[in-house]
């Protein structure tokens, strides 16, 4: 049985990063992954400019007087003329600093006296001036290839005037469902059958990460139909992903189908939920396509997607940063019995006695999908570890996996 870390290492060590790229508008770049470095051709700001509304002057003049006539007015977007000694200019936030000036005085530190402006502060060269290139210098690499673009990165790229960017094309992931016991939502209940939760969990998880979902629906529960479905899925997508059906039972056809079309590795992982995990390679005319067989239990499928499939797929998509970091919080629960496996408990943050603590769902079974809906993240209990009330535990918000 593999440890969690051994399994994740084996998966990530086997990733082939996509080489497919496309050029898109910056406006369409949210959560896309850069395929090349972004290098600025301009300085930001492009000129020395005022941080405040107020008055601009030369500090030398302020050392010899404190009341000055206003010689010009400079608004943002305008360029003033050279400032003459003995005068000041009215200036507004973002406006360029004129030649001959080196200090801005806030409006609040001035007063009008007989048509002139009295300055109530001392000389301080450079005060309230944003210097040219202070944020970004021409020639500077501001973002590396592999960066996943958040709103702040889109703003950063826009600040240097770039309108088009090269990004990796979204990976296409094909899914389908097998199992004669499954009903689709909206169908009438039938004795001995259950509703298909995993299909719709995956249909939310996959697009949420920016991948393209190809949902091939439900497939007849035979080996021939399963082989045909895998062939179709692998011809349409970069990755094939299913849930359940990889055991050795007579009605489980995924395992022999994948082995017929390529190779399959099934691992028992020292974790809960999500012990069974399948990973394989499908041979196609276009090359090798990865296959993920997630467990059939709904919470196990959810957890193994988040913890194994997600980092694999993000690395395959070209992302450099795939690690998630925990928040360390006091446990508002006890875990008195150590487990030889690593536990991923469904949990959420609550407040007790003016302190943020983490509580766990009372039922942690791998079939209790309500626990994943109720929760805000995973609390990770390391192998062979017990937890007492108040102990610090690692909490991984679900949002960090997005």
UniProtKB/TrEMBL annotation:
Keyword annotations of the record: Magnesium, Metal-binding, Molybdenum, Molybdenum cofactor biosynthesis, Transferase
Gene3D superfamilies reported in the protein's UniProt record: MoaB/Mog-like domain, MoeA, C-terminal, domain IV, Molybdopterin biosynthesis moea protein, domain 2, Molybdopterin biosynthesis moea protein, domain 3
Superkingdom to which the source organism belongs: Bacteria
Protein name as catalogued: Molybdopterin molybdenumtransferase
Pathway: Cofactor biosynthesis; molybdopterin biosynthesis
UniProt xrefs under CDD domains: MoeA (cd00887)
Organism whose genome encodes this protein: Thiomicrorhabdus marina
Catalyzed reactions per annotation: adenylyl-molybdopterin + molybdate = Mo-molybdopterin + AMP + H(+)
Function statement: Catalyzes the insertion of molybdate into adenylated molybdopterin with the concomitant release of AMP.
InterPro entries, alphabetized: MoaB/Mog-like_dom_sf, MoaB/Mog_dom, MoeA-like, MoeA_C_domain_IV, MoeA_C_domain_IV_sf, MoeA_linker/N, MoeA_linker/N_sf
Domain MoaB/Mog: start-end pairs: 174-315
Pfam family, one: MoCF_biosynth
The EC number(s) this enzyme carries: 2.10.1.1
């Amino acid at each position: 049985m593999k440890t969690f870390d051994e399994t994740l290492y084996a998966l990530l060590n086997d990733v082939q990063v996509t080489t497919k790229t496309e050029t898109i508008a910056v406006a369409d770049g949210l959560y896309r992954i850069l395929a090349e470095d972004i290098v600025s051709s301009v300085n930001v700001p492009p000129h020395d400019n005022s941080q405040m509304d107020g008055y601009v002057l030369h500090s030398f003049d302020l050392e010899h007087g404190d009341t000055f006539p206003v010689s010009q007015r400079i608004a943002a977007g305008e360029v003033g003329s050279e400032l003459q000694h003995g005068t000041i200019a009215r200036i507004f936030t973002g406006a360029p600093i004129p030649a001959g000036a080196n200090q801005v005085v806030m409006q609040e530190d001035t007063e009008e006296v007989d048509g002139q402006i009295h300055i109530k502060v001392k000389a301080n060269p450079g005060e309230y001036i944003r210097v040219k290139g202070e944020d970004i210098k021409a020639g500077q690499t501001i973002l590396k290839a592999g960066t996943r673009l958040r709103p702040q990165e889109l703003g950063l790229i826009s600040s240097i005037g770039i309108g088009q960017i090269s990004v990796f094309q979204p990976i296409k992931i094909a899914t389908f469902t097998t199992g004669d016991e499954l009903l689709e939502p909206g169908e009438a209940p039938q004795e001995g059958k259950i509703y298909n939760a995993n299909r719709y969990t995956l249909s939310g998880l996959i697009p949420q990460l920016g991948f393209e979902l190809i949902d091939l629906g439900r497939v007849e529960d035979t080996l021939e139909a399963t082989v045909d479905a895998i062939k179709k899925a692998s011809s349409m997508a970069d990755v094939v992903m299913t849930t359940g059906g990889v055991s050795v039972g007579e009605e489980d056809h995924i395992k022999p189908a994948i082995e017929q079309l390529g190779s399959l590795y099934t691992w028992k992982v020292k974790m809960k939920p999500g012990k069974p995990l399948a990973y394989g390679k499908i041979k196609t005319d276009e090359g090798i396509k990865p296959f993920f067989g997630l467990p059939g239990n709904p919470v196990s499928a959810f957890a193994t997607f988040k913890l194994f499939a997600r980092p694999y797929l993000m690395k395959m998509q070209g992302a450099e940063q795939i690690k998630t970091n925990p928040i360390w919080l006091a446990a508002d629960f006890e875990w008195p019995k150590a487990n030889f496996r690593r536990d991923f408990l469904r949990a959420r943050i609550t407040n007790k006695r003016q302190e943020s603590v983490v509580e766990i769902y009372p039922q942690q079974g791998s079939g209790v999908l309500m626990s994943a809906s109720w929760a805000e993240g995973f609390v990770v209990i390391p192998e062979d570890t017990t937890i007492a009330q108040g102990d610090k535990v690692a909490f991984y918000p679900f949002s960090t996996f997005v």
